[in-house]
Design brief:
Blueprint (H helix, E strand, L loop, with lengths): L6 E6 L3 H12 L4 E7 L2 H11 L3 E4 L8 H11 L5 E5 L4 H10 L3 E4 L4 H12 L4 E2 L1 H9 L8 H10 L5 H8 L3 H15 L4 H11 L5
Parallel strand pairs: 1-2, 1-3, 3-4, 4-5, 5-6
């Protein structure tokens, strides 16, 4: 097999054992070579330019710079390079956000080695792949209203246990405005109360854990 046929891969994941396992799995394949391993999004952006990979395998929740921001930055450097998301977290909002900034495929870490390898090869050939269970989650919420940035700012503070008055003080808005936004949040998420809303928002990817 010629050098030109080898798929050069960069792995971005903050868990050393995950990176080690992925590297071992991928380098067992004759047509794959791991050329860089990084532990956060900032390193991914820097190392991408230095290692020049053919495919990027990207986690989403990482320190310093998260995977979504790293994807967007890498896309600015090289719009043609495929980026395969490999993450613990599903959620239609999270998937939509990652794909919108430039991810080409989306897998969960529960995926088999065979699916990860096949997805990398497909990505290298210009094909997209979203895991069936992830796609099902996206389809289930298709057409539902998204939370606005202002609503997200309220819900993010509510997730920290703040009262409406405390949220209003923090955001420099009236308590009644907070109540109005919370009412809209509950309606959009079909939630019973703010605790339920936070749980749904985390599951769907509006809020990170």
């Amino acid at each position: 097999m010629s050098q030109s046929q080898i798929i050069r891969i960069m792995i971005a994941d903050d868990h050393p054992m995950m990176r080690e396992g992925l590297r071992s799995t991928l380098e067992d394949e004759r047509d794959m070579k791991v050329v860089a391993e990084v532990a956060n999004g900032a390193e991914a952006i820097e190392q991408f330019g230095l290692s020049n990979p053919d495919v990027v395998l990207m986690d989403l929740q990482m320190p310093r710079v998260d995977g979504t921001r790293a994807i967007a930055a890498i896309r600015e450097q090289a719009p043609q390079v495929p980026i395969v998301v490999l993450t613990t977290y599903p959620g239609d909002a999270r998937v939509t956000r990652a794909m919108a900034v430039g991810a080409t495929s989306y897998l969960l870490k529960t995926a088999s080695s065979e699916e990860i390898i096949a997805t990398i090869r497909s990505a290298f050939c210009g094909r997209r792949h979203v895991a069936p269970d992830v796609l099902q989650d996206v389809s289930a919420h298709q057409g539902m209203e998204s939370l606005s940035p202002r609503e997200l700012s309220v819900l993010r503070l509510a997730s920290q246990g703040m009262s409406n008055r405390e949220i209003g003080t923090s955001l420099h808005i009236a308590e009644e405005t907070v109540k109005t936004r919370m009412k809209s949040i509950l309606s959009k998420l079909n939630a019973h109360d703010r605790t339920h809303a936070v749980t749904i928002a985390i599951h769907r990817g509006f809020l990170d854990t």
